[in-house]
Amino acid sequence: MSSNPPHVVPSGRKHWLPTSAGRLVRLLVVVGCIAIALLALRAWQAAKATPLLPWHTLAAEEPSAPDILRGDWQAYVAHEAGLFARVRSELDAHMTPEDAHPLNRYTAGSLSAPDRFQHDWNRSFVLEAKIPPRGVAVLVHGLTDAPYSMLRLATLYNAAGYIAIVPRMPGHGTVPGALVRAERAQWQAAVAVAMDEARRRAGGRLPVHLVGYSNGAALALLHEVDRLRRGQPADANRMVLLSPMVRVSAFARYAGLAGLPALLPRYARSAWSEVLPEYNPFKYNSFPVHAARESYLVTAALQEGLAVLAADGRLSGMPPILAFQSVVDDTVDASAVDRLLFDKLAADRNELVLFDVNRNRLLQPLQVAEKTAWADALLHGTAHAHAVTMVGTTSLDDAAALARTRRANADALAMEALGIDYPTDVFSLSHIALPFAEDDALYGRIPRAGHPLQLGAIALRGERNILVVPQASLERLSYNPFHDYMTARISSLLEAEQISTASRAATPAH
């Protein structure tokens, strides 16, 4: 007989394996129960929430990514025209009298109907150069937005002699329900087709700029990163980015799980994180969780691509980048623009321009200091291989705005007085503010004749929890007080580029 009873093993392994397996099973059961409970809660919330309306449920079918890539810019715009006609017809067939009200963008003749403007800026458009073209710019709008958000910058480029190409990203401009199905591959394909058109028009002779806002900035960056990873050269000579979406919140990563109950028609509302009145003619207010997930996947692919190119030493092939970012941003991780993008760009030809919070004596004590510490370190800490400019104030008692610039690998700061004050009623810029001037016909605060709906001028006061839209969305700054400075910086790039191009053309070949 053995000296040890059969149930005793000195090493303890027979006891360890079942115990560990049992713990794992118990853990999986607990996790499964929590997941089921959360899905049940989500389904219950969906059943009780605001019902979906025709513009949430209509399918605005866009061409697939392969179909977009098989065509060209003209084919993309032609399909878009048919798409808008079909959506309008379907809306007319499904809307009831109760759906029509003076602030519904889908009600003909309403205050927020796109036809109140001189053009339906929900659609792709091109601003042709009125003089022999000096360049071509492709401008890519953000998530839930429309080409309207790039109109001001497109006009700036056009005035400088550039052909401005502004594509509508699939799923945008029609009905918010289109974003339930739109995929990042379609967005990437639309950017690629627009850049093909830009290269065709540039003919190898003219500079090409790629401009992106928010999710559009991520798509612009990913377009060039993917080209470099495939061994192709960048096809833009310069990039200009506004509120670039380099990293988003952790919620976006798992947003798709919140929509799982929508697999059952009864709980279709769970596919939406927000269902709000559609009073904005050129932006969706309602937001499906699928769109958040797709946007996250864009940023994940971008971060991976940047890391791979940095490790291989191939990021030097990226075009020079000028980016504008609010120091505080509730949509994207503002500090990630520096950490995950600019710090990886080794060349000293890139610049990050930051719009600081209002640091006057009354407002600064009310702000969360940790939110701005990363930007303070950029300006005063260890030098970086890129330039940094901070736009804001330097004194608690002086509202005069300055631009303080720290050149690449330098310690000294250059000061530029902007000749304007930081607005006393603004405590910071916002993610959505950067592309829009104070006199913007929709988002500005300065009244414009002929535009009865100017969202940036709304200043409502009243009791909490009475409005059908979140009060925070009405209080969020929708225009950029420093828009003139931003456009001046972009204009100076265009002027310098024109001088450089003329100089090269005048230099005799050897």
Q: Which key terms come to mind for this protein?
A:
alpha/beta, Rossmann fold, ten-stranded mixed β-sheet, two-stranded antiparallel sheet, 14 helices, 12 strands
Strand content: 5-15%
According to CATH, the homologous superfamily of one domain is: Alpha/Beta hydrolase fold, catalytic domain
CATH architecture of one domain: 3-Layer(aba) Sandwich
CATH topology-level name of one domain: Rossmann fold
Shape: globular
Unreliable stretches (pLDDT < 50, length at least 5) are 6-17, 41-49
Radius of gyration: 26 Å
What structural class do the secondary elements suggest? alpha/beta
Q: Which sheet architecture does the biggest sheet show?
A: 10 strands, mixed
The succession of helices and strands, N to C, reads HHHHEEHEHEHEHHEEHEHEHEEEHH
β-strand number = 12
Distance between the termini: 98 Å
Explain this structure to me?
It contains 14 helices and 12 strands. It is α/β, with parallel strands linked by helices and 510 residues long. The protein has a domain at 52-319: Rossmann fold, CATH 3.40.50. A 10-stranded mixed β-sheet has the order 1-3-2-4-5-8-9-10-11-12, with helices on both faces. A two-stranded antiparallel ribbon has the order 6-7. Strand 8 (321-326), helix 11 and strand 9 (351-355) form a beta-alpha-beta unit. The longest helix has 36 residues, at 13-48. It is globular and about 65 Å long.
